[in-house]
Amino acid sequence: MIDNEHVLLREIAALLLDDERDEDTFFAGSPTWIVVESGVGVVRVDGTLINLYAGAAILAEYGMKIELRRASPEHLRLYRISFDRYRLALEGRGELVYQADNEALPSAGLVHSGLPRRAFSLMRELAADEGRDGQTSEKSLTRQRHWLELFQMLLLPVPAAREQVKEPPIHRILRRIDTEYAQKLSREELAEDSGYHPHYFSRLFRQEAGMSFSDYVLRVRINKAKELLMLSRLSMSEIAVRVGYPDGLYFSRKFKQAEGLHPTEFRRRPKRIAALQFAGALLAMGLKPAVVERRISDYSLQLAEELENAVRIDETDSEAIERLKPDLILAPAYLNRERLEELREIAPTIVHPWLEADPVRQLEHLAAKLGRSAEASDWIAAFQRRAAEARSRVQAVFPPGETAAFYEIAYGNLYVLDQGVRGAYVLHEALGLRPPERVHRDVIVPGRYKRIAPERFAEYAADHMFFTVYTEDGEAGNERLFQSPEWCRLPAVQEGRIYRVPLERFWFNDGVSIERQLDWITGLLLERLSEQSAAD
Fold first, then answer.
1. How many Å apart are CA 294 and CA 508, to the nearest integer?
2. What is the pTM of this model?
3. What confidence tens digit (pLDDT) does each residue in 66-109 have?
4. Rounded to whole angstroms, how far apart are CA atoms 41 and 69?
5. d(CA 119, CA 81)
6. For 242, what's the count of Cα atoms within 13 Å in the CB-facing half-sphere?
7. 232 CB contacts (<8 Å, ≥6 apart)?
8. What does the alpha-carbon distance between residue 62 and residue 105 come to, in Å, rounded to a whole number?
9. Reduced to 3 states, what is the DSSP secondary structure of residue 465?
10. Where is the Fe/B12 periplasmic-binding domain (predicted)?
11. Which of 206, 314, 321, 384 is most buried (CB neighbours < 10 A)?
12. Distance (Å, rounded) from C-alpha 86 to C-alpha 44?
């Protein structure tokens, strides 16, 4: 029997805020729970302040900034639990493909206010086993059972919210239209199914949906048709049947009624794509986004020329996106369910996993959804030729047997980066530089970056250390790290084998971004290794 869902425990760590250290700040590298065992404090999750007390469990979504602070003389004891939830996306002969799917998780914030004692027993045991080498298969199975038991406990809602609110019939009708748009949908039939008179049904429907029943059905069908027109080569008759119209002629008439142009005209015209991520991947497929999320523009200097004319918007600004009238929205899967529904009401929205460990495979998967596989294959072939040439040049001068790894310094913390983040893919896959064994085992193989305590810096240090520095909230904490004895004692630091990399060129690593990063890192390495060779 094949499980359709898999929940992977990334990391569980015990945290202590006391007189020596009464606050802590970090990013959620995947969905993360903060669970309080004892003490009182506050946490700010992406700017939202939440009180902490014993038994509370707070969920943060991927990428959110988490700021913890003790609020009383008593020590604040917590657990940080990072995980990912996957669903079976493809089952074929000899192959199962799982994709990250965190849409079904609760929204960020307080999820539980009174965890049982058993939950803390499980957390203590799991944290004690974290990173322990050489576990037997039996021990691993026990650990997985305990994790799944804890996961179910954490998902229980706060007691005050346990009473189930009965879903209004009109909401069920809206969901039915959203999924059964290809079927015959009659107002009279749906009114009867929901227990209302047709006239009263029409009035309630307009109140809930903000438009008439017929207009809502038209919008759903036309949005799906636009998606098929953009992403498939189906004929007008085939699209008509797939969206609930009897023939291509009737479909064309309804489409022009809604959009003001014939569907063949829509198919031919340049598409306005709003990219909330994946700008570099779109460019690799020959698609230039008309709208980009603000951070893509701010932290993609390597794409400045291509994105010069793109309109910048904030990811959360639905009104701005709607005003720009995109034909298609490309969104990362880490956005919560409510946000994705808002986007789908604006335009057809393609949701894709973010931070896949292999950006080339990410490009292939995304291109298949966009109907641009041929263009993506051509770009990948050219990139691989470029990488092979760069690898040959670098390895000709890189000291044999030495290691390299990519790091980030943020809020005074050191993170080791996996291949889905910054320039680590270019370093290890494109240039073939080997990471330290512990980095390979604990970071590269699991596919998630890892925060390293100062006393363990040496265990994860490479002979050549590439790093970015996050400075949005100032440099004070980072400067303390640079001055710390744990950092200064590292051989790479003492021997001048550290390479500071501009974050504004390495924030994203999709498509054209990794091509430009390959050129940048190759040039930096050849220059520095040449200087070191001359000095020797």
1. 13
2. 0.69
3. 889 888 778 899 999 988 887 765 555 555 555 666 666 777 88
4. 6
5. 12
6. 15
7. 239, 371
8. 12
9. strand
10. 272-529
11. 321
12. 27
